[in-house]
Amino acid sequence: MKQAAYKSYSKKGEKIVNMNYAAIDAGGEGVVKVEIPEAWKTTTEGAPMVAKSGDKYFDEVFIRSLTCMATSFRFPPLPPMAALCPPAPPS
């Protein structure tokens, strides 16, 4: 990452490069490991589905996009309630 920061910001001066280096270093300092219970791998229960808000854009576009983003992360498998992205709303 530091090589990329140097390549991107070296023309702006050493101070800017060093600020980016500091940001890169700080990004790793707050990382903590979160233990996920084994039982979560096979659960069939979860948080309730988001209720429809009545706003067409929010209900049909935003929530669908958010669901798709959440299911595309390459982390441990999501519980079954996080199913695949819902089908696109009819046009």
Number of helices: 3
How much is the radius of gyration in Å?
A: 20 Å
User: Total number of β-strand segments?
Assistant: 0
Order of helices and strands: HHH
Specify the overall morphology: flat
Describe this structure in words.
The protein is mainly α and 91 residues long. Helix content is 45%, strand content 0%. The model has no long low-confidence stretch (mean pLDDT 77).
Write the layout of secondary structure elements.
Elements: H1 2-9, H2 14-29, H3 56-72
Features:
91 residues
Summarize the structure.
The protein has 91 residues and is mostly helical.
